[in-house]
Specification:
The protein is 82% helix and 0% strand. The chain has a single domain, classed as Na+/H+ antiporter like fold (Up-down Bundle), CATH 1.20.1530. Helix 4 packs across helix 11 and helix 8 packs parallel to helix 15. It is built from 17 helices and no strands. With 346 residues, it is an all-alpha fold. It holds the Pfam family Sbt_1. Keywords: Membrane, Transmembrane, Transmembrane helix. InterPro entries: Sbt_1.
Length: 346
């Protein structure tokens, strides 16, 4: 028993030392990758909000860019999926679905221990953290591309799978423990017929049917313009984040600690699951980012219907103003370091 424990401790020590070594040894490359135009545009948006300059996009432009990003990710993911074998995809999909249920359950009970929030608000937050952030996912892809790190093209399928179960689990926990009867049917309809799910799933189907040959004609639009359009979107999100930064004070120390610490835990779980199911270090990084991110588009719409008494302002402050910037600036390179370290010992 002692020898096994010693081996386990040695492996853990080796893993953590590997993570820190890779973080520090690759710091110039990581810094260069983080100082990409999309991330700098996000920081510019925060600065503009601090200076009380409104750089937010008009509503119509914001909606158009949202449609573009969702469809582009779906189509490119579908094309890559058409070139993948079922054996490559099934295990990561199963792991993603399982984590999509376990993450909100863990969030719900951890929040009970470190905050004074009631069951309804804990369930609402669990729904947000059980779902995913499209923009964090997209920023991760740009980060990996700029660093020249390969990843599996079917990760958009993982994104789609992770979008729904967490929201349902969070609402279920709130309704079972909070004494509030959830509006299940309209909430489920809101999730399944939402723009994000429809465009991602529809884009996947289009890309899968068209294949690489069909994608060639739209590559200049969905490929070459992608990073530029993401830059505008992150400028808008930076302005939104900066506008609500003052609300962070009202979140309390427990929720602030959760919004930073919980993504690290779930990100590590996602990286481990990706590695164990055969994903490359780049793919495992994306899996970690998906598990670490929190929704601020799909989840609020569903929670607003299912849990009308939930404090959505608190959910958005936590997911958009704390977790999103953390993942964008520090989380993504951290999950890459985890994936690289795990790849050396498996």
């Amino acid at each position: 028993m002692r020898s096994r424990a010693g081996v386990g401790l040695a492996l853990l020590a080796n893993l953590f030392s590997g993570i820190f070594f890779r973080m520090f040894s690759a710091s110039p490359a990581i810094l260069g990758s983080l100082l990409t135009i999309p991330v700098l545009a996000f920081l510019l948006g925060i600065l503009a909000a601090a200076l009380r300059t409104d750089l937010r996009l008009p509503g119509a432009a914001y909606q158009a860019i949202s449609v573009y990003l969702l469809l582009a990710i779906g189509v490119k993911g579908g094309v890559s999926l058409s070139e993948s074998s079922p054996q490559e995809v099934i295990a990561p999909l199963g792991a993603a679905f399982t984590l999509g249920i376990l993450i909100p359950v863990a969030a719900f009970w951890i929040l009970r221990g470190i905050t004074r929030l009631g069951p309804v608000d804990r369930g609402a937050l669990a729904a947000h953290y059980g779902s995913t952030s499209l923009v964090t996912f997209t920023a991760c892809l740009v980060f990996l591309d700029s660093a020249g790190i390969a990843y599996e093209g079917f990760m958009a399928t993982i994104l789609t799978v992770l979008e729904v179960p967490g929201i349902i689990a969070g609402v279920f926990l709130a309704s079972r423990t909070g004494g509030q009867r959830a509006s299940w049917r309209p909430a489920l309809a809101e999730v399944l017929t939402s723009k994000s799910i429809l465009l991602l799933a529809g884009g996947l189907a289009i890309g899968l049917l068209a294949g690489p040959a069909g994608y060639v004609s739209v590559q200049p639009f969905f490929g070459a313009l992608f990073t530029g359009v993401l830059t505008l979107f992150l400028l808008h999100l930076g302005a939104m984040t900066g506008k609500h930064l003052r609300d962070v004070r009202s979140a309390g120390p427990g929720l602030i600690a959760f919004a930073i610490g919980f993504p690290v835990i779930t990100g590590a779980a996602g990286v481990a699951a990706g590695t164990l199911t055969g994903l490359s270090p780049g793919g495992s990084t994306v899996m970690g980012v998906l598990c670490a991110s929190a929704s601020y588009i799909a989840a609020p719409a569903a929670v607003r219907i299912a849990l009308p008494d939930a404090n959505l302002g608190l959910c958005l402050t936590s997911s958009l103003c704390i977790t999103f910037p953390f993942n964008l600036i520090l989380g993504i390179p951290l999950y890459l370091a985890m994936a690289s370290a795990l790849a050396t010992i498996t």
